[in-house]
């Protein structure tokens, strides 16, 4: 415990760009580590990029089919044994947000299974410090990109809360494509002691204008949420902010939800095009809402809340129109039947992996022609609280 505390103090006292140096020195001194390498998952979640003095300093490693990728995907240590050494690959994940992989080469005569939990602790401490350090350095952000981002994509990724999140009551995962040239699609979440607030947004337009529009809408929703307003008032305030700036020339579609962690009761405001599907057991069904006006379309729009209930074991999938409106070469929309097959086919994957898997299947479904719109998928697994009660009904009802 004393040694662990000393290591954490060293990390906290290190310069933001020198965290890996501290880890490398500590592991060499304590375990005889021969080499230490940190890789961050790129925005497309296809490769693991080395953290170095300059972008592209090391060759990327694929997420699929490599020891590092297995550690990242399975979220557990992956070992590769050689004659004289053992390579230990460990996921760097903080509160469910999968950042990357730490690889440590240890002499074979120094390696024991007891070393793995100690290295997992190192990864946890390192991950926390990376999140803090990103306020002051671009090192770890630069390592995430396998290609240059468009300015619109840069703006959108800076707006997002993360790519995954886990609590006792739920697990979340989200992904956007095309990752390096996204425009107006966005998502946001916030967790309190008893509630999860989730939004899935689709701003009209392309390029920087779409990114600016989404930034305004998401920032307005956050401002209203942090002021303690209810869900309908959050939508109304964001609606006013968008209309005030654009005077009806542009609007944002958003699905806004607030989950009660104790009961599973959900409040929802459907203001536009993002949609939701539920996997319960082996049954997939679209969850209907009363469609209301997108944010910013008209002045002083009044929004109403609908309610439904999630049960432990439910999986919810949220998609933008770039997902369900995508068509096969034969003209069949993806959202009609293929999405149900995709949900059933990914039922055993954790939520953090589902969005990428769905979008990968969507790309194959769509054929060789590139998608002509952003595609956003968010997956939520609901576990609930074991001792919490709540209604069993699952139908969507308007607020009286």
UniProtKB/TrEMBL annotation:
Which keywords does this Swiss-Prot/TrEMBL entry list?
Hydrolase
MF annotations from Gene Ontology:
phosphatase activity
Does the record's keyword annotation contain Lipoprotein? Answer: no
Q: Which residues form the PPM-type phosphatase domain?
A: 167-382
Against Pfam families, the record matches this protein to: SpoIIE
Question: InterPro entries, from UniProt?
Answer: Bact_Sigma-Reg, PPM-type-like_dom_sf, PPM-type_phosphatase-like_dom
Q: Is Hydrolase given among the entry's keywords? A: yes
- Per the record, the domain of life is Bacteria
Tell me the first and last residues of the signal peptide: none
Q: What is this protein called?
A: Serine/threonine-protein phosphatase
Organism of this sequence? Streptomyces genisteinicus
